[in-house]
Amino acid sequence: MNKSSKKTIKKLFFEDVVNSITKDINERAIVMIADRFGFRKNGPKTLGQIGETYGITRERVRQIIKEAINKVRQRALKDELFKKAEDKIKFTINEKHGIISKKELLETLASHEDEENFIGFILHCSDNFNLIDDQEEMEAVVTHNQFDFKIWKNIKEKAKEILHSHKKTLDSEFFYNEFLKHHPELEREVFFSFLSVSSEIKRGVFEKWGIIHWKEIAPKGVKEKAYLIIKEHNKPLHFREVAKLIDEYKLNKRRTHPQTVHNELIKDDKFVLVGRGTYALREWGYQRGTVRDVITEILGSSREPLHQDEIIEKVLSVRNVKKTTIIINLNNFFKKIDKQKYSLKSKIKEKV
Fold this sequence. Notes:
Elements: H1 3-22, H2 27-37, H3 47-54, H4 58-76, H5 80-95, E1 99-101, H6 102-109, H7 113-125, E2 129-132, E3 141-144, H8 149-166, E4 170-171, H9 172-180, H10 188-195, E5 201-203, E6 208-211, H11 221-233, E7 237-238, H12 239-248, H13 258-265, E8 271-273, E9 278-281, H14 291-300, E10 306-307, H15 308-316, H16 323-333, E11 335-337, E12 341-343, H17 345-351
Antiparallel strand pairs: 1-3, 2-3, 4-6, 5-6, 7-9, 8-9, 10-12, 11-12
Helix pairs in contact: 1-7, 2-4, 3-4, 11-12, 12-13, 15-16
């Protein structure tokens, strides 16, 4: 059997389940349920929109749908297809240790976007699952009835405490090992499965965990995204490479223009232009200014003239330029002393 045939059978399964448990419901009620849960291509409708179609109030629509669903629930208790659907859903939830985001559940089980609405209706008609809408602490989730939300919250709060104590994003291995110091009995898969539905703790594009409002997790604007890219790569990068990486890691919905990156970074103190179009982070010890400015700073902080090789080494530690560029600057703007040593011209004058 080819893949397309399997997908067709899978798609028909959840639709067939809904058809099976609604077949004794009157036609108008079925159409209202279909409109309400979005079984048709035009998507879910509000009670008011459905009421306008039939010339009745939204409250009357609500009553009709409620009465119909009560009948569906009773029929579902004895329906074999419905039980199979519940088993599929239950297996998927158990794979995630009792809790899964509704989005992930639908993406896992549905082979087509339209089928998600049939699964949603089955969840609504079952007494074996909890459906929780988006909250401050967690995303919209589906759990089994025995799930202990108190345990989930304790784990989430301890994870938050660890992140705040380190004040930075943490890779998965280190994060879990830190958690084990407090709860050595918790399995790794359970830990990350629980955190995956948290609205407060998220894993960023570089597989590190942090608080949702941290810049490393949800960077806003070109500068924050560029900062994250350069910091994670831990080396100076050309602005064109930065733009390319922003798109590769899907930090932007639209294509990132290299010139926009260049324009933003060159005027921000957090970044230092260390070569032709190449930027580093100032926090790494790089200084803003030209090569001449850097040499001036190096010689100005020295009590005695420095050898050319020593100056070149110091400049290259904070600038991505050619050695010849440094030598040209030394010969044009600084005082050369015997044995290839250089000093500031002003220092020479002071000694005289």
